[in-house]
Design a protein that fits this description.
heterodimer; A: mainly alpha; about 80% helix; flat; B: mainly alpha
């Protein structure tokens, strides 16, 4: 590696922590919002269903980049204080992908056969037990493959945080571009490399969790083709 | 700071101009993605040595890395390497088209796999030539079934175009930014930009859902 290349390498490495924090924070918020909104969409109360619908359609319908700009540039004008870029980024990533995740949660819970619910009622389990001991363990296993895709989508979206100077990989690369014009292939190569590494780590973790969840149900995990077929609609 | 109706009214013509650019980008980018995606899917299926594996690797690489970086790569690396100077708009069409082609190729693949085996056998039994098998038997059955998924990707693309402001495409968001910089009032243009996206993508997603009900879910 030449001197310029080692400078580039370490400079982009500096942005890796922001990318990882944004991804982890975004994933955490996504999971919380997806479950809250997803279960709320199945609520018997019409008002609760309506509110979660508005959240889901609102965040899926407006562009993620616009949401980022809105939260970072408009909100300070409205409330008078500015969010830390990384924090604003995590908020937008979570809110946006949480809306997509809500549909995954709703679909997975609905896909649990009715007989399972009836069986739980027949055994006179309480509604909480029914949810956490019967429905959820089966629904969660179905959620892993689509959530895996959603999380990789979220990881890719962290690149948008370069618009608000959150100091992540893409921004570091763009700061290097004017200085190291002859090493562009290396700069972008290193950036892509790190995104691929994080994406592979996410996939490995999700596959592992899916296998554990399936084994607890006494099932074999979904095959790759089935998982891919379900991805069709994002 | 409160909502200023005057600024809102003033920014609408500029935003609509931007919306037109966004829609053009989406339509052209989707057209490229639909064609290229089918090409990718057919090459992968044909199992041509080296080429099929290369397409597989390319699809996986593009699918799991950010579109924004790919836009930069096309703009700052690919064009100079080819010694041509296309506009930022064209760069957007190419980057969006190629990125989404990696998604649509998976969609086509699933659609082709969903065609019952008997159809292949019947086509072989009738000793149809290879191209006829594809154009006359397989694709007419595979494509309608994947239309909803293709439609969804067009909507996704529509919402992702604003990132092209990084290379100076004058889309809705960039116009909103322009208006905000000129009047020092960001609330109205950015809020209206968001509403415009919702106004187009929500009805479109309802249409796709209706289509889904008609042709069935893949």
């Amino acid at each position: 590696m030449s001197e310029a290349q080692s400078t580039i390498w370490s400079s982009i490495l500096n942005g890796l922590s922001a990318t990882i924090w944004a991804t982890l924070g975004g994933i955490a918020l996504t999971i919380v919002l997806a479950f809250v909104a997803g279960l709320a969409m199945l609520s018997p109360s019409r008002t609760v269903r309506f509110i979660s619908r508005v959240y889901v359609e609102g965040f899926r319908g407006t562009s993620e980049v616009v949401q980022l700009f809105w939260l970072f540039f408009v909100l300070p004008a409205l409330v008078g204080f500015k969010l830390i870029p990384l924090f604003a980024g995590i908020l937008v990533l979570g809110l946006n992908h949480g809306a997509y995740g809500a549909e995954i949660v709703r679909g997975a819970v609905q896909s649990v056969p009715t007989a399972q619910r009836e069986g739980a009622v027949a055994l006179s389990l309480s509604p909480t037990q029914r949810m956490f001991r019967v429905i959820m363990p089966q629904a969660v296993v179905e959620m892993y493959p689509p959530f895996n895709n959603l999380f990789i989508q979220l990881l890719k979206s962290t690149a948008l945080l370069s618009f608000i100077s959150a100091g992540e990989i893409t921004e570091k690369g763009e700061l290097l571009r004017p200085v190291f014009g002859s090493d562009l292939v290396f700069i972008y190569g290193v950036e892509l490399f790190w995104y691929l590494v994080v994406a592979v780590v996410i996939t490995i973790v999700m596959r592992f969790l899916e296998r554990v969840g399936a084994r607890r149900l006494g099932r074999r995990p979904a095959t790759r083709t089935r998982a891919l077929a379900r991805v069709g609609v994002t | 700071m409160n909502w200023d109706w005057e600024n809102a009214r003033d920014s609408i013509p500029l935003l609509l101009e931007g919306l037109l650019v966004t829609v053009e980008l989406t339509v052209l980018g989707s057209a490229l993605a639909y064609v290229l995606g089918l090409v990718f899917a057919l090459i992968r299926r044909a199992r041509i040595p080296v080429l099929s594996q290369a397409v597989f690797l390319f699809v996986e690489l593009v699918r799991s890395t950010p579109l924004l970086i790919q836009v930069f790569i096309v703009f700052y690396l690919l064009w100079p390497a080819l010694d041509i100077k296309p506009s930022a708009f064209l760069t957007g069409v190419v980057a969006l088209g190629v990125h989404y082609a990696t998604y649509t190729s998976e969609v086509y693949r699933a659609g082709i796999e969903a065609v019952p085996k008997g159809q292949w056998e019947a086509a072989t039994a009738l000793s149809l030539p290879r191209t006829r098998v594809w154009t006359g038997v397989i694709l007419p059955q595979a494509v309608p079934r994947v239309l909803p998924a293709l439609g969804n990707y067009m909507i996704s693309m529509f919402k992702e175009t604003p990132l092209l402001l990084a290379i100076g495409v004058l889309d809705v968001l960039n116009r909103a930014k322009e208006q905000g910089a000129e009047t020092f009032r960001v609330i109205e243009p950015y809020t209206l930009a968001g509403l415009l996206f919702l106004l187009v993508s929500y009805p479109a997603s309802i249409l796709v859902r209706r289509l889904e009900r008609r042709v069935g879910h893949l």
